[in-house]
């Protein structure tokens, strides 16, 4: 078994330099965002969490690789290459969503801070995309689950669900929309549980039941829940609620409800694709 050993050369490699650039840019974006700040806006809170969380994850990965601790982790429980590539892909998605939100809700002709934060966020996204591209093009790196299509599509499902949950608005006093929230919430932790179980191979092998059959059951439940939400959310959100002529960014309830509707159909499509691919056992999906 490899012992933990300090290897400063990992910081001077192209991968280490890229990690340092990601950490610095995310921290700068976080600081600029904090100074400007819109603490009462859910999209802004989401963006601040992402800009704070991504560099922390990158820093942890860098430290583990610098001390070769990741080799010990690899022996005990997980495929490190698959995990780190998956984290780079997830960070790319999250920083991209922050960039789109800032560009859509916080930019105007005179909003200098809004422009600064959006540009900085775009740079963060570009850096994580570069790492993702390099990892996917490196034939020596393995892609067993998270970095492969079966795991990545579940990461997408969880990501879209998070976007939906931070966008929920206008549901008070409407039981049908409250049911939709339940439909959005139930699949999220179950999807994350499937991802974590597949990453931690030792735990997966110790389970008294088949994780593939469990995955199939969760997919069926998720599809049914999202079908109900896809019908009820737009029906009860837009009934007697046409788009107002003046609909400014984050303060326009109608546009945010439209975001929820659109993302509901996106996630329904992802879950149906996941279910079909799993049933057919194609593209790396395991048929139960």
Secondary structure: elements and pairs:
Layout lengths: L8 H4 L1 H23 L5 H25 L2 H8 L3 H26 L6 H26 L11 H19 L7 H11 L1 H13 L1 H6 L4 H27 L15 H28 L8
Helix pairs in contact: 2-3, 2-6, 3-5, 5-6, 5-7, 7-9, 7-12, 8-11, 9-11, 11-12
Using brief descriptors, characterize the structure shown.
mainly alpha, single chain
In brief:
With 288 residues, the chain is mainly alpha-helical. The chain is built from twelve helices and no strands. The protein is flat.
Kindly state the number of beta strands: 0
Question: How confident is the prediction overall: mean pLDDT?
Answer: 84
End-to-end Cα distance? 35 Å
Helix-strand topology string:
HHHHHHHHHHHH
- Shape estimate: flat
Given the helix and strand composition, which structural class is it?
mainly alpha
Count of individual helical segments? 12
State the helical fraction. over 70%
Q: In oligomeric terms, what are we looking at?
A: single chain
Rg estimate, integer Å: 21 Å
Which range does the strand content fall in?
Answer: under 5%
